[in-house]
Structures are given as C-alpha cells and as structure tokens.
Amino acid sequence: MEAKVITPEVISDFRNVLNALGRSVHTVARYLFDVTSFARFLDGREATAEAAREFRDSLMRRGYAPGSVNTKLASLFSFFHSLGWEGCETPRVLIQKDAYISEDAELTLEDYRKLLAAARCPRDRLVMETLGGTGIRASELRYFTLEDVRKRDIRVQCKRKIRRIMIPEALGRRLEDYAAEQGITSGVIFRRKNGGALDRVSIWRLMKAAGRRAGLLASKVHPHNLRKLFARTFLANGGTLEQLCDVLGHSNLDTTRIYIKTSGAEHRRIVEGLGLVPCQEEEPEDEPETELAAEPEEAESEDGEKPETAAQNKVGAKKPFPRRKNKRRKGKKAKNNATL
C-alpha cells in the first residue's frame, strides 16, 4: 500500500483538482495553506486519523477559535477526498450554535452611516455604498464595469454560480458620475493606482482606516459585515428569507440564516413589549394614621342604669333583631297542657 505522505507533488496535484472544480483563487489559496500547515506539522510522517486529531488539538492549544480549526479540517477533508485517502479524517470541534452574535461584532445602520462619513475619499465611500447597497462579496466588486452599470444589469460569477445583481437607481447614477469624474470610459469602475481592479485586501484596508477615523470597534468593520447588514435590512423592508437566499447567491436557507443573526437587541425590544408579564403594581403610599376620637364613657343614670345611646334615641332606629322563638317547642307545650 502506498504511504500517505504529503509531498510538494501531492500538493500540486491537489491544486490542479481545485482549479478543475472551478474554485475561486481565494479558496484555492486557503486550502493549499491549510494542507501545507498540516504537512509541516507531520514533518515527514504519514497522514492518519490520529495525526489529524493531534493537529486539531494542537491548534486548539495554540488559541485558534473552534470555527477556524473546523475550517482547516474542512480543507484537509477535501484534500483527503481528492486523493482517495480514506480513513484520514478526524471529527470536527463541536460548536453549539448561538442564536445571537456579540454586540461587538454587529455592524448597525448607525455604524454604517458613521463609516461612510469617515471615508477618506469619494472612491472609498462609494465602494462601501456599493457593497452595502447590493450585498455583494468584496471579491465580486471587480464585475462592476461601466458598461454593465449603465444597463443596471450585472452578472457575477462566484463558486461556480452565476447570479444577477440588482443595482439601485440612485447607486447606478452615482457610479456613472464617479466614472465620468475619473475619466473612465469603459471597463472596471473601481481601480487601484496601477489601473488594476480593486482587490479584497485593498477594500479591507480602506474600511479599517475609515473605521478607526469613525471610532468604531475593529471587530465590527470588515467587508463581510456590509453583506450581513444588507441581509438584515432586506428582511426588515419586507423581503422574504427565500428571496434573500437568491439575492445573496446561497445554496440553502441555513447559510442565509447565519447572515441575519443580530445581537438580540431587537428581539429583546419585541419581547419586552409583548405585555404578557404584567408590571408589578405600585404599592399605595401609607396614609397618615389619624387618632380615633376616644369614645365618651357612658355615664350611669342616677338609678344605676346606662342611658340609651344617640343611635337608639333616633326615631326609626333599627332595633336589635328579636330572638327567634322555637315554635315547635311552644306547640308541644300547648299540646301537653291540653291533655292535662
């Protein structure tokens, strides 16, 4: 049996497989980096499930987040599968899914407006407006050519899928005005100084710079958060989850649901306003105690009897209820007298 040793030739074959499958440049680079890291960890040893488990545990000890560890294991899974190396996989790190995200990670609409106001130049602001207003990935900005913007019909290709991007009319006019100001008559609108299309690294840097000037947390400011902001705003304005799934180019709704997670502040506001738990009634303030007037002592009359009270002296005053006589007993006594 051939030894399962990761060599430069094996990694090269894996690259060819990824390119044949139509994986993006970013995906290919990430997969190759993860496989190379695993090969460095093995240091010439054979790839086995036990070795993959040790690699996973070493990443956890070094402080990698569980999600990052699982991403690397997914790369290894694709690598093993492409080579037919069965039995080399190891279980991923189990992560309990959170219903909400941290407030430090959610880019709100107010944060977005601060970010736009802090843009260094009109180009940077328009880049962020395009990402936020269309929900595209940062890598898809290169498909925004002047010809397609004029038609308001842009088709992007990512992950072997081609989808249509809807451009708001206001954004389309701003893109045309920017191209005219920059002297761009055709081709890609957003360019670097050397004329090439603006790449995702440049977009990441310009957003981070704007975030620092706006005083926002660094954890909130990155291109993918603009895509998530678009998703939440889309639903808030009447869109359905199925429509959003198509707009974002997702294969299933489970992926789309990840994009619409919030910090839970809105959920809490709704729950607090349901009114199903009545508020505790405020206790009335203690009334000041008033001293009861002392009842006058009943004076005895000269003959030793107590005088009638004022209530008893009133005309028509209710008299005490008379004691009820036992008619049955009275009748029995009369009968006995009759027999005597």
What percentage of residues falls in helices of 4 or more residues? 40-55%
* Alpha-beta content class: mainly alpha
The CATH H-level homologous superfamily of the domain at 109-269: Intergrase catalytic core
H and E order: HHHHHHHEEHHHHHHHH
Proportion of beta-strand residues: under 5%
Number of helices: 15
Strand order of the largest sheet: 1-2
Number of strands: 2
Classify the fold: give the CATH topology of the domain at 109-269.
hpI Integrase, Chain A
As residue ranges, the low-confidence spans are 292-319, 332-340
What does this structure look like?
The chain has 340 residues and is mainly alpha-helical. Among the domains are: 8-83, Tyrosine recombinase, N-terminal domain (DNA polymerase, domain 1, Orthogonal Bundle), CATH 1.10.150.130; 109-269, hpI Integrase, Chain A. 51% of the residues lie in helices and 4% in strands. The protein has a two-stranded antiparallel ribbon. Strand 1 and strand 2 form a beta hairpin. Helix 2 (25-42) crosses helix 4, helix 3 runs antiparallel to helix 4 (66-83) and helix 6 packs across helix 10.
